[in-house]
């Protein structure tokens, strides 16, 4: 994973953070300096007399000032941060009595300026060395990423409700991997109201900085200060803006300004190409692997898949992203010898193999979180947090991710990376490339369900479910099988159907058939339902045949009154065929019903032959999000589709005598 340097927001301002994370190493003192604020900083004074009603607080804290100022000059960069907040109640007291400042000691120096508490007319200094602890806390270790960052924790004692806490610091230094060029972002709104927001950038007059206003028309005030160009934004009474967690990943309603020394995407390409230059000579191990692939596989398609699979199997994922390692890959020989690497390392190793196999391949930068949301951003390396491989073969582009679990099947059968847009690092590239979806990226499930009630009305019913998984759905199942025991997976499978058939029991363990040549998995489950038929008050026996695999995609969302879009799982193609075998030759009326919505298509059909009902239900997604304005029609259409799902059987008990 690339260490994303900016443009990632949580929506909530965080002042104090619990220190129960993974503490790897307690650092020695003197990893910071205590200094007065830099002379280039504009002094911003908070309005301590400002009215702070309840609606202007969050978590028991009212924010009076968020002040960020940046100076870029030559290769140097200084980022000044200044925060002021008032503790309104006991909740805020608990959450905000510790201050965390994160920095990368490989290229940054932490300069502490002030930490104080204002209690009425009393100003109490709190910047005491004894209260400062510097810890190496690897917050991304669960994602197998070691970035070497440290956190300065300031533990404040004797903090009371009504106190105003103020602190300021500067981070000095820039990552050398960017060659003296800089970029960042100023946020103007969060999920918490702020009384005063101030942002300022100082740069040399001849520095050609590109700006991008996002969700705002708040242009900068531009001045010349001491021979430097100043850009400043001054906002008052900034309200809270909260976005729901179920919004699509690309949705970002928050106003901000992005600035960058990289004028366009072409400049980022020129920066990135040298990082992914393949070695002119291969190690003996790599050369032997290239020879093996050439000898064993004749077609370019098969060679690409084998090279990809070799890296996926041979090199485990582990990122060491300290300093320049945040964006620069490790040499392939080193990666292969140590048998671990992150996305950058595995991409360069894959490129090395493919180039030796005479395959047209390039590194491609993507954003795994914002995905297609990067379209329209200001160009910079900070727009990306992941890198993959783009292969051009036979007029087609293939987007391959070496960090995935080993992928089975032919080149057209394996799932490809799907991040919306990518920046391909190849000469002449000046724009983002759209990553078009291939068939293997479709989440495909073809389900055959057989409910066999031929044994009699009051007898247990046999339930057999056979599911064919292809492409990405097959790969996800393999990942599940690699992590879970058969016993645990069986429990999950039976409990899935227990939501529809409470009297279900496992007759015999599931069976799994893995067709790796075509990247397909067939899963067969065997159950018995003891209470499918139920007595009603009017002396009838009733049974309901459910369509769970399709129903899962038609559930009503929790948050329906909204202003933001709602994210959907996409692309999806689910087809469930259900046979219900009956104890006598009933006659029913069949037919087909359809629901067409802007984000999905649904079709349900039923047909009958003596003793058997056949139902075929399909759901196909058409978009990854529902616009807020379309929510009411979407709810109506999903409700209409749910009403068409399944079938209820009814039989008079008199006929059972």
TrEMBL record:
Outline the extent of the DUF3857 domain.
79-240
Query: Which SUPFAM superfamilies does the record match to this protein?
Result: Cysteine proteinases (SSF54001)
Q: Which domain of life is it from?
A: Bacteria
InterPro entries, from UniProt? DUF3857, Papain-like_cys_pep_sf
Q: What is one Pfam family matched by this protein?
A: DUF3857
According to UniProt, the name of this protein is DUF3857 domain-containing protein
């Amino acid at each position: 994973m690339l260490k994303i340097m900016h443009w990632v927001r949580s929506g909530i301002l965080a002042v104090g953070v619990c220190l129960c994370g993974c503490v790897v190493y307690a650092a020695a003192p003197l990893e910071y300096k205590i200094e007065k604020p830099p002379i280039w900083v504009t002094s911003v004074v908070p309005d301590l007399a400002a009215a702070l009603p309840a609606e202007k607080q969050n978590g028991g804290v009212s924010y009076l000032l968020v002040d960020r100022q940046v100076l870029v000059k030559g290769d140097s960069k200084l980022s000044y941060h200044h925060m002021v907040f008032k503790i309104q109640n006991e909740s805020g007291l608990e959450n905000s009595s510790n201050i965390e400042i994160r920095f990368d000691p490989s290229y940054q120096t932490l300069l502490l300026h002030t930490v104080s508490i204002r209690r009425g007319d009393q100003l109490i200094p709190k910047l005491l060395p004894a209260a400062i602890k510097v810890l190496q806390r690897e917050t991304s270790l669960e994602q197998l990423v070691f970035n070497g960052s440290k956190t300065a924790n300031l533990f404040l004692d004797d903090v009371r409700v009504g106190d105003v806490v103020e602190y300021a610091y500067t981070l000095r230094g820039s990552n050398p991997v960017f060659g003296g060029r800089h970029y960042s972002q100023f946020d103007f709104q969060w999920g918490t109201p702020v009384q005063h927001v101030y942002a300022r950038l100082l740069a040399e007059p001849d520095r050609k900085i590109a700006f991008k206003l996002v969700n705002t028309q708040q242009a900068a005030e531009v001045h010349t200060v001491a021979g430097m160009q100043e850009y400043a934004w001054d906002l008052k009474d900034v309200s809270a803006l909260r976005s729901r967690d179920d919004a699509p990943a690309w949705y970002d309603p928050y106003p901000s300004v992005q600035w960058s020394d990289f004028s366009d995407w072409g400049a980022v390409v020129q920066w990135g190409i040298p990082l992914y230059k393949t070695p002119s000579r291969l190690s003996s191990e790599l050369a032997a692997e290239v020879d093996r692939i050439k000898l064993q596989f004749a077609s370019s398609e098969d060679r690409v898949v084998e090279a990809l699979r070799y890296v996926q199997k041979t090199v485990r994922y582990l990122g060491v992203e300290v300093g320049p390692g945040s964006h620069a890959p490790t040499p392939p020989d080193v990666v292969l010898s140590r048998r671990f690497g992150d996305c950058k390392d595995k991409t360069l190793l894959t490129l090395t193999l493919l180039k030796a196999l005479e395959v047209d391949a390039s590194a491609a930068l993507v954003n795994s979180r914002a995905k297609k949301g990067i379209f329209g951003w200001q160009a910079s390396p900070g727009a990306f947090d992941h890198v993959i491989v783009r292969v051009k073969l036979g007029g087609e582009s293939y987007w391959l991710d070496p960090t995935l679990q080993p992928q089975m099947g032919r080149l057209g059968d394996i799932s490809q990376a799907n991040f919306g847009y990518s920046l391909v690092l190849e000469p002449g590239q000046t724009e983002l490339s759209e990553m078009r979806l291939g068939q293997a990226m479709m989440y495909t499930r073809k389900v055959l369900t057989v409910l066999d009630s031929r044994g009699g009305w009051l007898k247990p019913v046999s339930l057999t479910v056979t599911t064919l998984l292809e492409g990405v759905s097959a790969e996800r199942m393999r990942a599940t099988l690699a992590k879970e025991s058969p016993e645990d997976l069986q429990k999950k499978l039976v409990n899935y159907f227990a939501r529809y058939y409470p009297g279900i029991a496992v007759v015999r363990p599931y069976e799994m058939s893995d067709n790796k040549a075509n990247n397909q998995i067939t899963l067969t489950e065997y159950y018995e339902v003891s209470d499918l038929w139920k007595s009603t008050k009017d002396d009838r026996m009733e049974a309901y045949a459910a369509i769970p695999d399709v129903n899962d995609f038609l559930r009503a969302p929790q948050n329906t009154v909204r202003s933001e879009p709602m994210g959907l799982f996409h692309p999806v193609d689910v087809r469930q065929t259900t046979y219900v075998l009956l104890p006598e030759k009933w006659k029913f009326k069949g037919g087909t019903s359809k629901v067409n919505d802007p984000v999905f298509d649904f079709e349900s059909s039923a047909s009958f032959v003596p003793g058997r009902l056949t139902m075929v239900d399909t759901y196909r997604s058409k978009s990854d999000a529902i616009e807020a304005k379309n929510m009411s029609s979407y709810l109506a259409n999903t409700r209409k589709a749910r009403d068409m799902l399944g079938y209820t059987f009814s039989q008079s008990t008199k006929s059972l005598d």
